[in-house]
Amino acid sequence: MMRAVVIARYGAELEARGCAMPRPGPGEALVRVRASGLCATDVHLLSGRQPLGTLPRIVGHELAGEVIALGDGVTGWRPGDRVTAAIDIGCGNCRHCLAGQTQRCRALRRIGFERDGGHADYVAVPAANLVALPAEISYEAAAILPDAVACMYHSMIHRGMVALGQRIVILGIGGLGVHGVQIARSAGAEVLATSRRSERRALAERYGAVAIDPAAQPLAAAVATFTQGEGVDVVVDNIGTRESVRQGLAVLRPGGKFLVVGYLDETFEIPSMPLFKTEQEIIGCRGSTKQDLIDVVHLTRTERITPVIGAYYPLEKIHEAVARLQSGDLVGRIVLTRDA
Ligand SMILES: [Zn+2]
Ligand SMILES: [Zn+2]
In which region does residue 236 sit, left (phi positive, over 0), alpha (psi from -120 to 50) or beta (all else)? Predict the structure, then answer.
């Protein structure tokens, strides 16, 4: 038996319980998890809006640990290797998978969603998903790379084409936004980031952003100053409410890109005439590819990105961790630890 955090039924709470040890199937590796990143999505999954197949399901889509055993046919990995894992498992044969855009695969399966994930002592994952972890990166820091960091990297660099000399806005400085600031600065862009919480603004400023409180200072006025009236090249919306979409689109320059990363509201309202007149682009952003994860491992090793962890909780204290996540007083991401 091992410990794991599961969704036993929709509408309930995440719960820590004993589960059977996973066994690595053909092509899979058994990983002893040393740390896993807690994501708000882990909690949102309780709603049942994203069907997870059979329950109970072990959640957790961000993990780091060491390879313990290998299933049949696996080459290139050995027990003891330090690893993290890409989240997506595509069919491997469709046009999207063949193009390396696994996140668009219609038959997509994900670690911690449609198959058991990393909030456990052990997890079996396809060896093809493993990414080697250099010794300089701790398991805890690595545990937030697959989603909190790689998702921002995928969104901003590959979807938003954020580049040298651009000016961008990041709405929300939570677990994603704080890494978005660092990625934009590494890419050579200037960043204006918004949060109502002063600790989060202070953190964004430490990483080189201009930070404002949208409740105290209208975004439009701040962006007008920030860009000398031009509007920004890219808006990264980590919130995804009607209000964030309305405010974000209003500060975009003609031809600018609006990145939909958050999706709190079910629908958004998009004014049609400004879109027509300005050729602005509204771009959906989903997760990250394995190459994105490889890239952010490299950027972390070379210290161009620092994973920001706000709190640590042992795996079995999942209720406290979720309460802290929902309290909103967190700066950075939560990592669930394992006893050594
Ligand atoms: Zn997530
Ligand atoms: Zn596919």
Answer: beta
Query: How many angstroms separate the alpha carbon of residue 114 from the centre of ligand 1?
Result: 14
Tell me the CA–centroid distance for residue 107 and ligand 2, in Å. Answer: 6
3-state SS, residue 325: helix
> In Å, how far are 84, 143, 287 from 293, measured between CA atoms?
9, 11, 10
The answer, as to whether pTM is greater than 0.85, is: yes
Q: At 266, which helix (H) or strand (E)?
A: none
Nearest listed ligand to the Cα of residue 100: 2
Indicate which ligand has the atom closest to the C-alpha of 97. 2
> In 127-227, which ranges are E strands?
130-132, 167-171, 190-194, 210-212
Question: In this predicted model, what pLDDT tens digit does every residue of 3-51 receive, in sequence order?
Answer: 999 999 999 999 999 999 999 999 999 999 999 999 999 999 999 988 8
pLDDT digits (tens, 9 = 90+) for 184-214: 999 999 999 999 999 999 999 999 999 999 9
Instruction: Kindly give the distance from the C-alpha atom of residue 110 to the centroid of ligand 2, in angstroms, as a whole number.
Output: 12
The first and second tokens of residue 189, run together, are: 């862009």
Ligand lying closest to the C-alpha of residue 288: 1
Taking each helix axis as running N to C, give the angle between helix 219-226 and helix 242-250, from 0 to 180 degrees, rounded to the nearest 10.
Answer: 30
Q: Which residues are placed with Cβ below 5 angstroms of ligand 2, an ion?
A: 90-91, 94, 97, 105
